[in-house]
Design a protein that fits this description.
This protein is mainly α and 242 residues long. It contains twelve helices and two strands, in the order H-H-H-H-H-H-H-E-E-H-H-H-H-H. It has helices spanning 2-13, 15-22, 24-28, 35-42, 47-52, 60-69, 79-89, 101-126, 148-182, 194-204, 206-218, 225-233, and strands at 94-96, 99-100.
Length: 242
């Protein structure tokens, strides 16, 4: 909600158009124009509005390149995955003052997404989709203070779309995955411990059997059948892998 609020506020203030002019020279070094920056910035909230924002690009090549690299930006859906991995593998130590190592790693992941998107765009523009850059002309809107009701309605629309997605696709896939990981239940004996019982139940479940079936396909990647189950479930939504 905070990210959507800031994006819509900057856009309605008239700042985003000026930001496109400011970064036009920088974006030109990777073969894109300044308007592509707005689409990539929107992809930090979600790749879908970022891809939709490419409709303002006049060049079909620039539009296609921006669409291809927009998913590389670190969207909000990846934040739970990053938080889980950082909490598991990065120690909670202080680097300098109030700055912690976990926060720096998270910041680095966000910066890495932007760098990867720009580097991929430069490679695509020089190899697969070459073309001359078009002159960047755009009418600058005047600065104005947007009505609070307008910004609130835009934020509510985006937040409601995410809540509907979280309450339908993500919730449904999570419920199905729980059922696949739980059934059929394994009879427990007194001799088996909690850890052994949990591991045996997981392997005998429907998801466990499916994971063992696809394990030969993902073994060359260094993954086992447990990670394979998570990868298959995340095809519906990336948050489900958590």
């Amino acid at each position: 909600v905070v990210l959507f609020s800031m994006l819509y506020l900057l856009e309605d203030l008239g700042y985003m158009a000026r930001a496109a002019f400011v970064v036009d020279r920088l974006m030109g070094r990777v073969g894109l124009e300044g308007r592509a920056f707005v689409a990539l910035l929107s992809s930090y909230a979600c790749a879908v509005p970022g891809i939709m924002a490419t409709r303002t690009l006049p060049s079909p090549r620039d539009r296609l390149v921006t669409i291809l690299v927009a998913p590389l930006m670190t969207c909000s859906a990846r934040l739970p995955v990053y938080a889980l991995l950082i909490g598991a593998f990065v120690p909670a130590t202080t680097v300098w003052g109030p700055i912690g190592l976990q926060g720096l790693v998270l910041l680095g992941l966000y910066a890495l997404g932007g760098f990867a998107a720009l580097a991929t765009a430069a490679i695509l523009k020089k190899t697969v989709l070459p073309g001359e850059a078009l002159p960047f002309t755009m009418e600058l809107p005047s600065y104005r203070l947007p009505p609070v009701r307008l910004v609130a309605s835009q934020v509510w629309g985006s937040a409601w779309a995410f809540l509907k997605r979280a309450g339908t696709i993500i919730l449904l896939v999570s419920m199905v995955l729980w059922a696949l990981l739980t059934f059929p239940r394994l009879d427990r004996t007194a001799e088996i411990g909690d850890t052994e019982y949990a591991r045996a139940s997981l392997e005998q479940s429907v998801a466990g059997r499916m994971g063992h079936a696809i394990e030969p396909l993902i073994t060359p990647l260094g993954f086992d059948w447990k990670i394979g189950v998570g990868l298959v479930a995340s095809l519906a939504a990336r948050e489900v892998i958590v």
